[in-house]
Design a protein that fits this description.
CATH architecture of the largest domain: 3-Layer(bba) Sandwich
Helix content: 25-40%
Bound molecules: flavin-adenine dinucleotide
Oligomer: single chain
Mean pLDDT: 96
Number of domains: 3
CATH class of the largest domain: Alpha Beta
Low-confidence stretches: none
Largest sheet: 5 strands, parallel
Strand content: 15-25%
CATH superfamily of the largest domain: FAD/NAD(P)-binding domain
């Protein structure tokens, strides 16, 4: 806890953001951290609530509530309030390998389940966490800490997203020699080539991977492990293998006209833009440049919002975002009480910017497309959209979205970005290792909560095991897989 009466004395005050007008002119992070005294006041708002749901990773109503990492939030809020940032950081690092990532991109399940949120506003845990992470880097508390003794065991991690990085970090700290194989030219997975710069500057990712290198983790970028020979070689050379290769198979919207030029998957588009920002001398392929174009994004989720923010910055003429589901309510519904994750309408940074620029919310709810429309040369000119309505399935009691007959209409556009989710791990990796896939397309594991696959030497973590998820879950998964691999190699594990 912070100060017993802090929640009565101080209002929740979030860090300021640059105005939409300013921030759409660049691709940098745009939050302006509060000063130290404000941070201490915000930490003081953490009260002695008895059962801090913020730090408990529990499933309520079929959904996760509280921090998946079990971050010791009341403890570090208390230390921040008392001015002991060093100790606060030490407690934070007990459970979270990469607070500089989660404090920038996590939707903060902890704040949704904060007791302060029951009848008021939650503690600014995410911003407090960011303060601590940056305090650590600024004060030399995040320097390289290579293990004193090496175990002699060799571990290969395939994929360098947050799951692979967390597994590598844990296993390296334990003294094992870890090599991370990454097919992209830079490590970081979706932290590097998915989440846009304005949410997570790429120097923050590189700062961490360079630190891990200094601690002894080897990164082999530009190396894909996808052929049976490569998998066999790895299994022969290493004592254990962790698959952390993400859920990179995008869900397609393969309706007539899909072959038209100008239709891209969201991650390909975001990756091209990030690469261009990292290498300003390189040309941004015109196909991935929204400048002057009418952009249609299919998918109303977070990835779709990142496409909105990117297209706005590239200078799109118009941005529209389609979502199949109905618009969520502004307030929690009675069947979605605290401390569950609130299923309410969120207007994210990209959507706010589109509202500022074009004067209206880019989202159109309960709508999908039936066809891509093209001109005589096969160039994309628009889509045939159709309205949807929820219909209750009498057998299952679940709702499904059905087309409204006769509601078709045309939306004109020059570029379509498909942000309709992901279908699981790529087949080639499971085939290479001879490992089964689950019905959901993820890497199959022996027990529902476990990470070991049918090959006892091979473990799986992150989106490839769990399905498309969040950075905080990927870190949790990496830590869990590391603990299981460590126990497999050593007979026990002290990793937590
Ligand atoms: C556009 C976008 C925005 C997002 N924004 C957020 C957000 O704001 N907050 C949040 O919490 N989550 C966000 N997410 C989700 C989050 O990024 C993922 O859940 C998380 O990155 C998954 O981590 P991972 O390590 O399992 O996989 P990934 O991050 O996908 O990393 C997998 C890595 O494995 C590599 N790889 C794959 N196959 C091979 C192979 N055969 N050989 C070698 N390397 C291989 C890939 O190149 C990749 O680098 C976002 C996702 C997307 C797509």
């Amino acid at each position: 806890m912070g100060k017993a009466t802090g929640f009565l004395e101080y209002e929740r005050k979030e860090d300021r953001s640059e105005t939409c007008e300013r921030r759409i002119r660049h691709f940098q992070e745009f939050h302006i951290p509060s000063d130290e005294s404000e941070r201490r006041a915000q930490a003081a708002r953490c009260k002695d609530c008895g059962v801090p749901f913020c730090q408990i990773n529990v499933t309520i109503g079929g959904m996760a509530a509280g921090c998946p990492l079990g971050n010791l939030i009341p403890e570090w809020n208390d230390f921040i309030y008392r001015g002991n940032d060093r100790q606060a950081l030490a407690r934070l690092r007990k459970t979270n390998n990469f607070p500089e990532f989660t404090s920038r991109v996590c939707p903060a399940l902890c704040e949704a389940s904060c007791t302060g949120h029951l009848h008021g506003t939650p503690v600014t845990n995410r911003e407090n966490e960011r303060y601590l992470a940056e305090y650590g880097f600024e004060h030399g508390l995040m320097g390289p800490e290579p293990p004193a003794v090496r175990s002699g065991k060799k571990i290969a991690v395939i994929g360098s997203g947050p799951a692979g990085l967390a597994a590598a970090d844990q296993l390296n700290r334990r003294g094992h020699s870890v090599t991370v194989f990454e097919r992209a030219d830079r490590p970081g997975g979706l932290l590097m080539y998915g989440i846009p710069n304005m949410k997570l500057d790429k120097s923050v990712v590189t700062r961490r991977t360079e630190l891990m290198q200094a601690e002894g983790v080897e990164f082999r970028t530009g190396t894909e492990i996808a052929a049976p020979e490569a998998a066999a070689a790895l299994l022969a050379e290493y004592d254990a293998v962790i698959l952390a290769c993400g859920a990179a198979k995008p869900r397609d919207i393969a309706v007539p006209g899909r072959e038209a030029a100008g239709i891209h998957f969201a991650v390909d588009y975001l990756r091209a833009n990030t690469r261009h920002l990292l290498e300003p001398k390189s040309r941004l392929d015109a196909e991935y440049n929204a400048k002057g174009k009418r952009v249609l994004i299919i998918g109303g989720g977070d990835t779709g919002n990142d496409c909105v923010g990117t297209a706005v910055r590239q200078g799109a003429k118009k941005v529209t975002q389609l979502e199949m589901l109905p618009c969520p309510p502004a307030e929690r519904a009675p069947d979605n009480p605290w401390p569950e994750w609130p299923k309410i309408l969120k207007t994210d940074y990209g959507q706010q910017e589109a509202i500022f620029l074009y004067g209206k919310d880019p989202r159109i709810w309960q709508t999908t497309i039936k066809a891509y429309l093209t001109d005589a040369k096969g160039k994309l000119t628009g889509v045939e959209a159709v309205k949807l309505v929820p219909v209750k399935d009498e057998k299952t009691g679940r709702f499904r979205m059905e087309e409204v007959p006769g509601s078709e209409y045309e939306i004109r556009c020059d570029m379509v970005l498909i942000a309709a989710g992901f279908l699981g791990a790529e087949e080639k990796i499971t085939e290479a290792f001879g490992i089964a896939r689950s019905a959901r397309g993820t890497v199959a594991v022996r027990t529902p909560a476990g990470h070991q696959t049918e090959n006892p030497k091979v473990f799986a973590a992150g989106d490839c095991r769990r399905g498309q998820s969040l950075v905080v879950w990927a870190i949790h998964e990496g830590r869990e897989a590391a603990r299981e691999a460590d126990a497999y190699l050593m007979g026990y594990s002290g990793l937590r």
